[in-house]
Amino acid sequence: MNPKNYFGDRWNVFDFLIVVGSFIDIIYGKLSPGGSNLISINFFRLFRVMRLVKLLSRGEGIRTLLWTFMKSFQVSLFPDLLTIIKN
């Protein structure tokens, strides 16, 4: 696939930006382990989460799986908190 065809699809451009943002995050983390805030690194980490947007738009099965995971997480949240508090 040549670059013209690759960047013709908006989802590929989206993936490219996520990968570039992740590289910036990794390189910046290695160069400044003290955590100086010249740029907000959390902004670049947000791009990784945005990949869910792509997954959700691709298919019904993925949406159902993610919805089920979110609902099960909500249900298990309170028993987990009680277990943590008890210990």
- β content, as a range? under 5%
* Low-confidence segments: none
- Taken from the alpha-carbon principal axes, the silhouette is flat
Note the total helix count.
5
> Can you give the mean pLDDT?
76
Structural class: mainly alpha
Radius of gyration computed on alpha carbons = 19 Å
Give the SSE layout.
Blueprint: H1 3-6, H2 10-31, H3 41-49, H4 51-58, H5 60-86
Helix pairs in contact: 2-3, 4-5
Key features of this structure:
5 helices; 2 domains; 87 residues; calcium transport; 80% helix; mainly alpha; 0% strand
Give your account of this protein's structure.
The structure is a single chain. The protein has helices at residues 3-6, 10-31, 41-49, 51-58, 60-86. It is an all-alpha fold and 87 residues long. The protein has 2 domains: 1-49, no CATH class; 59-87. Helix 2 packs antiparallel against helix 3 (41-49) and helix 4 (51-58) packs across helix 5 (60-86). The chain is flat. It starts with a helix and ends with a helix.
